[in-house]
Prior knowledge:
Alpha-Beta Plaits; alpha+beta
Amino acid sequence: MSRSLRHIxxxxxxxxxxxxxxxSLNKRYYSTxxxxxxKQSDSTExxxxxxxxxxxxxxxxxxxxxxxxxxxxxIIKQYLVxxxxxxxFTRKYNExxxxxxxxxISSPLPTSSKITELVPLTRDSGAFVKxxxxxxxxxxxxxxxxxxxxxxxxxxxxxxxxxxxxxxxWNRSPKVYSVKGIPWIxxxxxxxxxxxxxxxxxxxxxxxxxxxxxxxxxxxxxxxxDPGESYILFHDVRSAICxxxxxxxxxxxxxxxxxxxxxxxxxxxxxxxxxxxNHTRIAIPIILxxxxxxxxxxxxPIREFFIQYKITHSSHSLDHYKQNKWFRLIYIPYKNLINMxxxxxxYIDTQFHEVTGLKMEDDSCDTDAQxxxxxxxxxxMFWKERFDKSKQLTMWILENIDxxxxxxxxxxxxxxxxxLDHTLLNNDKLSKKILVLECDExxxxxxxxxxxxxxxxxxxxxxxFTWTNSISQFVDLxxxxxxxxxxxxxxxxxNQIKNMFSxxxxxxxxxxxxxxxxxxxxxxxxxxKLPDEEKIxxxxxxxxxxxxxxxxxxxxxxxxxxxxxxxxxxxxYPLIADxxxxxxxxxxxxxxxxTADVGSIQHLNEALPNQVFKNISLSDASMxxxxxxxxDVLKVKDTTTLDTCLEPLxxxxxxxxxxxxxxxxxxxxxQAITEMISxxxxxxxxxxxxxxxxxxxxxxNNWNPAQVWLIMKLLSNxxxxxxxxxxxxxxxxxxxxxxxxxxTLEKYDLISLRRDKGVLSKIVTGRPLYKAAFExxxxxxxxxxxxxxxxxxxxxxxxxxxxxxxxxELTTIYxxxxxxxxxxxxxxxxxxxxxxIVAYEKEIVDIASYKAEQKPHSFLGxxx
Length: 864
């Protein structure tokens, strides 16, 4: 030991008793001229309180104590104390509140003693209290008496073991310390820390001296002595606060050493961050795996719930709860209030019409009512021809034997209405669990995010974060740069869609299991009331689902096709087929496919190669039903005018509804059918006869305008043409390309292919209205000249290509050896092709000079 602390005994339990030369209770030593500075500033200021100067003065018969009321471990409290203090209606700890608390825990005090000044420190959960003690008593005895009273009162407060345990945990016992230095009361943004820094003005102290000086305020974890600045790490923040307030400004060794204390933020060592930064190849994949696992654990149950909600919407919709009396008690006043607010602007108009006797009509309501009436008429008339098929579909589902059903029919034939409105929704058992997938919404998505969003919307998959796809790609790129390998965070859209359907399978299974659990509980309750010999055997899940078809959801896959509109989305249809086959094989759902593309059956055959599908084919309605339907909706009895107009529509529901809308809008029947035929002709000319679209990069547009023109000419004069007849044309010589072209045209509803025992035999018009459109296009001389010339030009090109091929072969034969038979054969072929070219060119010249009355009526020997 050296200097003024050489007589101190290093016993941490013993009180600190400094030698007299170190510090005087009646005189303060300032190593700086702070006292002179304060006196100079006080002389010109009116406010010289501690709040303005930060320094507490005391006279010879006063003693300054620091009260610590509770622990200050709450860091949030330290940072937000200023905000809370400015918020109204919050509890305020002012000087009077602290004064009452100090008197309560320090009583009984000597009669002649009193509190002369109190400075609360809300941030530190403490206060500086200046007492005036009696002249007959020393400062030391007064301080000891105050400490003794505080300890006794605290012991009385902790009168049971529960309070003692809580007090030991939260450290809320008040403590009193004598202020040995010159406290600096500041409100800077320097928040308490368990670590304090001691700067020495003068001679520094050793570790032993620092320990003796600071141990009384709490346990010390570490001491680092340094001549410039020493550091002490306390076990808790409360000890550091008390030490700073009581020791800072303390003068030792007759003014040769002054201590200045500040809080030092503790720099914590983050081992996890260090591990991640030093081992990126290991840490980043682990973090990504944990994040993925966390996302699955959190979001997948939520998504599964929403999928189940979408499937069981009929039993969990808002309308289901509107019948509840408590719901009505809340909902009806709310609805009236909303209506009053939103329709308040109509008050003047309403009053005006009431006064004038005029009645306001809501066109939208009339339209809705009329639509409902039309639907009823449609149900009664238009669909009676399909009643037997609807009954058959219902029976197949209730039989519950391999319910993999395919409903085929041309576009606009009402497949969705037939399955949903007239079959499933009319049956109370089958209408409770239905999921409808609109495949065209998926196939038309032009971006990955749109595809994922549309799929999620169809399945009820929520929440879905499409924006993470873009972010994951950048993260994957960054991880690859850091670790040299991809993280796998950026999944392909195929995998993401597959995961959505996998989760949907789980949701469908849980729906079945919910009904099964209800069945099990019901049987168990009944068995409790029955004797042992009469107890009912509980079926297994598979047996239960086989006997209860209404417990399985019905999946309706609408607009299923062979190819997607966007080639990059072609994977969707095989994926849906595989998903549906899994549902059937697991016996957890009924699946109904609605398709207008016969080629799409190939996907289903590949998904279920050993499954025999149940098929229902829908055709257009008969003319009798079509006329009756239109007459009932339009409320007309005279069908003379309608007979001619309805014949081109042919019973196609889509066109009949469009015709009815035109009549209601004010057009007469002749006008309506003429406009419809013109629009259909324009569609055909734009889509099928457009050379630019046919030669586009879209692989689905694999037809040639000349091929379409030939089919149009043949079908405009016949209801059907034989496939053997169409392949006579040079444009349809290649069998594989011909089948692809015809299948594509069937997909777009231009034609319909009829098969006999699986073999293509007949070709008919895909949409009845298109037959009239064909005639409309061909009857226009200008259009006929254009496309007929293009058709003949295409035939000439084919013959020219043949001649070039034959000529090349002849050249090769002459170079090798002479084969007279082959040379004669090729020569005749060349002459035949040349004769055809001459005939085609002559016909092109004749077409240019044709007038309307001279237009030929034969083509390739076929009479028109």
